[in-house]
Specification:
The chain is of the alpha/beta class. It is built from 11 helices and 13 strands. The strands form 3 sheets. The protein has an 8-stranded parallel sheet with strand order 4-5-6-7-8-9-10-11. It has a 3-stranded antiparallel sheet with strand order 1-2-3. Helix 1 (54-62) packs across helix 3 (81-98) and helix 5 runs parallel beside helix 6 (151-160).
């Protein structure tokens, strides 16, 4: 097999801000795998939070041997962005070789549209209220928070979008005390989920803490090996392919998490429709789907995913799978 890696940049429609910083573009790696007859492709988003860079992930991919299987990847690469792009490219080329859709190869039912969250980035309360009002027609809004003074932001977003369902993502930005103080107000304002309120290394504080709103593990959950460390702390796990290392592990993590009593959220980094396409399979029946990456872009892949009132649709064969 021949493997090529290219860096691609997609401009964002607006500045995107979380508690760790801001960005104006999505920088991704695109992997193409060719066997001389068919070509499959996948996308990953190297993430500095996990000590990944475009250069380090490219080096991981370019260091692979010439021939391997998807199962070989578990021994060749750790869970993360590099393995994700390669795994998804292999699924794509396997589907093309077989003349079938990926979900048929995986033994899954044909996917249907899923309502996706739309993310409002972190800003001052007045700006977030205006953002919420602009997107108040959307059924599910995700609010980026993660500062000690988020109460005003919560109130502002609820005022701007009184009918939307709301989930919040603190991106590890709160302390146990801040979360405890905010919890009753989250209930009052109708927040339905809190994503990663505490730093991953400090989340033992959640054990025994009252959780009136379900708490979701994001940075604390990467793959199936993460699950034992989540007990007593979280109610939901956020599955992202750039954390699991691809669709193969994402599907396995979903099944094991559900079997252990967790609910499932399926999320994404800020990437193109190619990055979201495999995740639409994992998102089937999830408690929360958060695959809005393409909605945040000013430009996208050819044959992009379709988003409408029914949600995010599964990919056309011309895009992936």
């Amino acid at each position: 097999m021949d493997i090529s890696v290219t860096a691609d940049v997609f401009k964002l429609a607006e500045v995107f801000t979380i508690s760790r910083g801001s960005r104006t573009e999505a920088r991704v790696l695109t992997v193409r795998i060719s066997d001389g007859g068919q070509q499959g492709w996948g996308e990953c988003v190297p993430y500095a939070r996990y000590d990944e860079t475009l250069e380090s992930v490219r080096a991981e991919i370019e260091g692979l041997p010439s021939n391997f299987t998807r199962q070989d990847l578990y021994d060749l690469l750790p869970a993360g962005a590099a393995r994700n792009a390669v795994d998804c490219a292999l699924w794509d080329i396997e589907a093309k070789r077989a003349g079938k859709r990926v979900w048929d190869l995986a033994g899954l039912a044909a996917p249907r549209p899923e309502i996706t969250a739309y993310t409002l980035s972190l800003a001052d309360p007045a700006t977030m209220q205006a953002q919420a009002a602009k997107h108040a027609h959307r059924p599910l809004l995700k609010i980026k928070l993660g500062t000690p003074d988020d109460m005003a932001r919560l109130e502002a977003v609820r005022a701007g979008a009184p009918k939307s369902r709301i989930i919040v993502d603190a991106n590890e930005g709160w302390t146990a005390g801040v979360y405890a103080d905010l919890a009753p107000h989250l209930v009052r304002l109708g927040v339905q989920l809190v994503e990663q309120p505490l730093p991953a290394g400090e989340d033992d504080a959640l054990i025994g803490m009252d959780r009136p709103v379900p708490v979701c593990a994001d940075e604390s959950c990467h793959d199936r090996a993460s699950l034992p460390g989540l007990k007593g702390k979280y109610d939901v796990v956020n599955i992202k392919l750039d954390k699991t290392g691809g669709l193969t592990e994402a599907l396995a993590l979903r099944d094991q998490a559900l079997a252990e009593g967790y609910k499932v959220m399926v999320g994404c980094m800020v990437g193109s429709s190619l990055a979201m396409a495999p995740a639409t399979l994992v998102a089937q029946g999830a408690l929360v789907t958060d695959l809005d990456g393409p909605l945040l872009l000013a430009e996208d892949r050819d044959e992009p995913l379709e988003f409408d009132a029914a949600g995010v649709h599964p990919p056309k064969a011309a895009l992936w799978g």
